[in-house]
UniProtKB/TrEMBL annotation, chain A:
It is found in: Nucleus. Residues 382-448 form the Transcription factor Tfb2 C-terminal domain. It comes from the Eukaryota. It comes from Papaver atlanticum. InterPro entries: Tfb2_C, TFIIH_p52/Tfb2. Component of the general transcription and DNA repair factor IIH (TFIIH) core complex which is involved in general and transcription-coupled nucleotide excision repair (NER) of damaged DNA. Keywords: DNA damage, DNA repair, Nucleus, Transcription, Transcription regulation. This is RNA polymerase II transcription factor B subunit 2. Belongs to the TFB2 family.
TrEMBL record, chain B:
It is found in: Nucleus. Its main location: nucleus. Keywords: DNA damage, DNA repair, Metal-binding, Nucleus, Transcription, Transcription regulation, Zinc, Zinc-finger. The keyword GTP-binding does not apply. It comes from Papaver atlanticum. It holds the Pfam family Tfb4. PANTHER family: GENERAL TRANSCRIPTION FACTOR IIH SUBUNIT 3, TRANSCRIPTION INITIATION FACTOR IIH TFIIH , POLYPEPTIDE 3-RELATED. Coiled coil: none annotated. This is General transcription and DNA repair factor IIH subunit TFB4. GO terms for biological process: nucleotide-excision repair; regulation of DNA-templated transcription. Component of the 7-subunit TFIIH core complex composed of XPB, XPD, TFB1/GTF2H1, GTF2H2/P44, TFB4/GTF2H3, TFB2/GTF2H4 and TFB5/GTF2H5, which is active in NER. The core complex associates with the 3-subunit CDK-activating kinase (CAK) module composed of CYCH1/cyclin H1, CDKD and MAT1/At4g30820 to form the 10-subunit holoenzyme (holo-TFIIH) active in transcription. Belongs to the TFB4 family.
UniProtKB/TrEMBL annotation, chain C:
The keyword Transcription applies. Transmembrane segments: none annotated. One of its GO terms (biological process) is nucleotide-excision repair. Belongs to the GTF2H2 family. PANTHER family: GENERAL TRANSCRIPTION FACTOR IIH SUBUNIT 2 (PTHR12695), GENERAL TRANSCRIPTION FACTOR IIH SUBUNIT 2-RELATED (PTHR12695:SF2). Gene3D superfamilies: von Willebrand factor, type A domain, Zinc/RING finger domain, C3HC4 (zinc finger). It comes from the Eukaryota. GO terms for molecular function: zinc ion binding. It comes from Papaver atlanticum. Keywords: DNA damage, DNA repair, Metal-binding, Nucleus, Transcription, Transcription regulation, Zinc, Zinc-finger. It is found in: Nucleus. Its main location: nucleus. This is General transcription factor IIH subunit. Residues 389-409 form the C2H2-type domain.
Amino acid sequence: MPQVKIIAKNFMDMVAALPALKLDKLYDNTFICEAVLRSLPPLAKKYVLQLLYIDEPVTAKSMEDWVLTDGVSKHRVAIDRLIQLRVFLEITDRKKETSYRLNPKFQGNLQHYIAHGGVLPRESMSSSITVRLPTAEELDSYALEQWESFLLQLISSSQPEKTTSFSSSMMKIFQQGLLSLRDKEAPKLTESGFQFLLMDTNAQLWYIIREYIINSEVRGVDSADLISFLLELSFHVTGQAYNASTLNEIQRSAINDLAELGLIKLQQGRKDNWFIPTKLATNLSVSLSDSSSRKQGFVVVETNFRLYAYSTSKLHCEILRLFARVEYQLPNLIVGAITKESLYTAFENGITSEQIISFLQQNAHPRVCDRAAPSVPENVTDQIRLWESDLNRVEVTPANFYDEFPSKDVFEGACDYARDNGGLLWEDSKRMRLVVKAEIHTLMRDYLHRQK
Amino acid sequence: MSVLKKSKKNNKRIIVWKLLSYCFFKYLREHLSVISGPVTVMDSAPSKQYSDDVSLVMVLLDTNPFFWGGENTTTKVSFSNFLNHVISFLNSVLLLNQLNQVVVIATGYNSCDYIFDSSTSESLNVSSGNGKMPALCSKMLQKLEEFVIRDEQLSKENSPSGIVSSLLSGSLSLALCYIQKVSRSGRLHPNPRILCLQGSPDGPEQYVAVMNAIFSAQRSMVPIDSCIVGVQHSAFLQQASYITGGVYLKPPQLDGLFQYLSTVFATDLHSRSFLQLPKPVGVDFRASCFCHKSTIDMGYICSVCLSIFCKQHKKCSTCGSVFGQANPEVKLPTDRKRKTIDLNAAYN
Amino acid sequence: MNYFTNNHVEERRVAEEKEDEEDEEGNENDMEAWERAYAEDRSWESLQEDESGLLRPIDNDGVQHAQYRRRLRNLSAASAASRIQKGLIRYLYIVIDLSRAASERDFKPSRMAVVAKHVEAFIREFFDQNPLSHIGLVTIKDGVAQCLTDLGGSPDSHIKALMGQLSCSGDSSLQNALDLVEGYLCGIPSYGHREVLLLYSALTTCDPGDVMETIKKCKRSKIRCSVIGLSAEVFVCKHLCQETGGSYTIALNEFHFKDLLLEHAPPPPAIAEFAVGNLIKMGFPQRAAEGVVSICSCHKEAKVGGGYICPRCKARVCELPTECRICGLTLVSSPHLARSYHHLFPITPFEELSLALLNSSRHKLQKTCFGCQQSLVPSGNRPGLRVACPKCKQHFCLDCDIYIHESLHNCPGCESLRHSKTVNNIE
């Protein structure tokens, strides 16, 4: 069962994990090269550009001269990444000196790009055929709506407002790990499910896309094809219409799924079908790089446990409802309070205090972050932790109970033995009873046998 | 202009680069291993920007016809060749990050104007109609051609004598206005920087205006990079890069210009704190005098308005104050104990 | 309670302009009202609900108002000074009243803290605008004036000294402070402008002798004294300012105080009788290349790295500005001087284009701002106001107008035209 990975750039790790042959095949496509380049750390990008017109291998030593002493660690990260993605090929010569050169396919594609500029993957359709295209705002809100309804459906499959075309088996795969699906029981959000909700949109998107790609092999689709199509898609122009007939079989089946996620909008004309990529799609290659396009925070927590969330999103409201009491809602403002009761329900659902705190901190409104004080007041974070530890006042340890010792000596010997092994939990020397942790039960038994 | 039409064939240049980049590369390696010590890099901390390496590059392109059409063509590249390098550079900046933005401003002899902006939708949607020409290239060259023709028409037929500078102050001012617009447009905006590709000599009459622009750039933390493609060094740009924390470079071999541009000037502001970049080979801090507009290294300063003169005058031509008895070497501080005037030490 | 007798005219003009102002809701103030809440009290009052129930900030007059006022000042300054003479070499003593009155809490957190905060900003701004000038700090405490820092040009040393001395007690004494400062300012060169800026919290002065005599003495020494009061108008301060040619203003609140203080940063008009003009010989050294080894004349030892070379005797010095050890030439860096040149060549204020004109001849007008390429065509909530440079006739948006006049000090239009006089319209 796949575990939820919090880090968005894992998608590139996935690309890196592809076998060398497949990876080289991917680099046939200019767009893949471009996307891979853009996903690299800044320093690595620089190196690629610097070596773009150098055909000879460059020794690792001379590359180290390029950086200042402060940048050595960054340099190493960059080089590792480049080798991992087979952008740099490592060559070791007779003197055991390492040198690097660019992957020739990658190099060729990028040289072409530099000389000829970026070309679009396919021609957009002329406006005479596509009568009315949605405006940028319409498209954005469409994408957001699709994505949120998908998410809502994902987390609360019990009350679907709008069913998607994803087969229930597909949905189940997405839900795996996010929801605990037990028969006859309403599905509950697991810890990783909550973490999933905490991620920003791009990261969530990648999680889903990643599952989608992994799952593709089962459906008999080559994952490399799917990856290259997705990356290619991100180079289309937002809001332009592209003819669906230019797609191949695999791609055509994929776009229906992608439309459900809000990546593209499908429209039908008299003769042709076309698809319009939304911002989510064109941001795919952006989100590959780690820190870019982080979402704006929106939550303000006050010391009196009141919580103000400047958001119009229903999803945000749902997330806040998981651990706070929502008091009232204006169109762009959600006001709530963090109460003991609301937190207890959250804890019961397996959400930890740390997750809640990190959610509040990560989504703190930028104005709150700018202040020197912690973004969530300390008394609030402390109280959330205290309430959690309140619940866990009784600690359950599996243990064994021993009594009816034949003599005081045996009893005390047993006590000492248990203590030495770090397993003694309780002793009553008057009535010669003791409780020992279950894990050393066998040791205890052996010991007591020896005593006999 | 015929030069422009030639540039449309972007053949052969890759071969040239391959040959030259290796030479350059060796040069750079030797060059860099000599120098040590910290680089002056501006702190670009503001958190309201995208990730660290998203850049907005304002390229100021010198299109002065008197420079490109001058006689000393043996020492430098032709304009078409130069454009090839620059367009490749623009492509590579756009390649590095999807959010990168490039704006090109032409610095002419009589005027300055925007000729390319990668953020406007029209520049993106151009379908490469004829197939041969890259979209960026065609759009930009077309506007450049219009600009050069218009620029030419503005100059009355009297060919100027003496120094023929281009209007650096104008294009710097335009670039700064544009950067202001970008930085007030929203919370997330790319890291701006200016790159001057300058060939013509400095125009001393622009001294005050250029300095004003430099200080404004310094205040808004915009580094000004300069790449000199002309014969002489530019004192203006040396000061500009020094004051704003940009990089000043006069490539010794202009045939490999692209390699210089991509190695040095494509570096985003964030990476500059980790990379070895060319150090200034000295900064020309000479000023222009107000009376003859000539560059001087010693002169007289009016105590009322700080105007600079190359000779003694009875009366200040700027502020009109009449000078008392000429007292050529007044010590600024009366207090003799203090030998150094710690004026503005922090602003240096 | 009209403290604005001197600013009366300006106030009225502002009031008139405000009506025009209301049309132009600046885009730069799109900060949410509650975001500003941490800075100002009663922020909830500046919220309003729009027709769809969204909370929106009421148009924030304050910020625009201040911007506009600064613009107005530029306007009047430019029109008044047909011949630009500014006292650019200034010797300014800032006298800070740290008597008991400075601990009053009508400014938050206290008058003293507010004064210290804004003096810091002022010192930095002052050196930015007056490159060859000097500042000294004096405090009044327990009826005694004490010199905190000597006249000097390093902003950081002043600020450090000030921050270390923040406590207040006792009475205030105007006479003691003036006597002390007058003593210091007597010795400066004749071409320097002598100024005192008092930040006065108290309503009284406790003097050892006749303060009027001291005021006369200041007048004789050509010291221009200005006062910014933090409580209410005091006759003796007003008299001092009138006699010595300074300005007297009273701060209404913190923002007003900041504005009043920063008004003292630009150089004042030079008054011929106050300072004698002089030509000073100076050198503009070049900076040597990085990594060059040379013997430094100030430390008498070999140094690596960029130093400055005296143009007359070619000796190397480490820092600017200084005096050459070998030949005695005053060495300054020319950028230092250039920082003040925008005072000498101010750009003409742009003319606002009336909407009537825009409507009548829309087809001929520029579509975008010449500076930043922003669209000037009116659309939706943007009224498309524009200004034009009277010289080059290019049109600019309001944001560029402010930027050009307050920071850039160049008109991009005029700078982009070699023959700006012969060409009336580039189109």
